[in-house]
Amino acid sequence: MGQALYRKYRSKSLSEIVGQKHITDTLSRAIKNGQISHAYLFTGPKGVGKTSIARILAHEVNGLPYTDESIHLDIIEIDAASNRRIDEIRDLRDKVHIAPTSAKYKVYIIDEVHMLTKEAFNALLKTLEEPPAHVIFILATTEAHKLPDTIVSRTQRFTFKAIEQSKAVEHLRELAHKEKMDISDDALELLAVHGGGSFRDAIGLLDQIGHSKKTVSRKDVEELIGIAPEEAVQGLLDSTLTGQPSDIINSLENFTERGIAPAQISKQVSGLIRKNLLENKSADVKRYTQLLADLLGVTSSQQPGMALEIALFNANSFNAPELIAAVLPVKHVGTPPQSVPIVKKPEEKAAIKTEESNAVEKNDDKPAEKEAIPVIQMVEGEDISNWWPKLVNNIKKHNNTLYGVLRLAHPHLDGDTLLLSFAFGLHTKKVTDAQVNLVLQEAIKALTGRDLVIKAVQDKDLKDKIPAITNAQAFSAPEPEIQIPEPAELSEDLSAITSIFGGGEVLES
Fold it and tell me: Residue 15 needs a FRET pair 20 to 30 A away by CA distance; which of 196, 248, 261, 324 works?
């Protein structure tokens, strides 16, 4: 059976370690000067050499040669993930007082030490406080924040860093040369990037691709690790920023056919946006900021595909000049409606306060009456385009997900039935959901005063068509005649903040 590359080329001494010179130099000087600590703590990301350095250190303090197959009775490795109970640590505490069999020090390497239970940590603490002179502890973890401060304070802590991409590429090139692999530089760079600062992960990918062929290109690596070509990701971003919603859906379908997960697409789009911002390729910082904020939720979403679509549709909606719309309430099932704040100028606030005071003086004995909300009157046989764009725009204020779906609908009014046709079953299923259907019914009633039965169907013939309500139409529909003060001009910084956290009234100091 062949040996994995990361084991075959594992470092055998501190001088061979790559990427952690700040640690290896310190440890080498300590060994040379005989300044050995009784406990060390190695923290940092996975695959950067914590366990390898722990093993090398255990052998070098004892003057023993180290190979990957080295086994010594006085060097004991414990996996805390599977030996986390207090019983195992009590057994360790009892045995530490036994002298080494042949080495100078008995060394305990406890990997993933953060997995120990609270009781086990307390038992270990007793040993760390008063350790025998012949015992050295080396604790390793990827999650140092989970360790008790009492444990950390009794160790010498060394923080490992993620491997720099340039060093990772250089190391991978060296291993590929030793394995007689012909691999392009851009393929090596992609392996290093996807390794995420972990030598072990990057070398594992190199090992995997090396078994398939001896000549390796960037395209081979993309297919291996399931990522989209950079030009395809750029095409998706271009469709989002300047194209139609149908262009976005077509691009996403192509990614799905290639087996690329929505979370991976989201990650690559985010990376491309950051790259464009660093290279000053776009001045639309506010739009990019909002899109990045939306993409953050794709991975954690229960429906990542839908979450990715909505994030891209929201960014795409900036293509149309958005008008300030009248505030009409939409009732939500299980959650209270949210009001949409309007930013007012200082002089307008003063005028409104004066009018309110006058009204109170004139009607001291009369209870205040709420102003009725204007309702769009529907006429039998009226064209739905007279009110549908307004409805979609109102939904956006309260439910971004439903808004993104409705923008792709082809509506048709038949008596008291509103038929919504979609190109894709996912969108049809969304509107068919009982709670979503009820929200939509209430929104229509609030806008038109009419109770409609809503039905959603899938029509695959619509895939190649632009949605019936395009961006330009959705924001150019007739509005109810309600006088709304124009918003105060926001600073560039405040605009970027409100694009993420929502609008709010600007308070004058």
Answer: 196
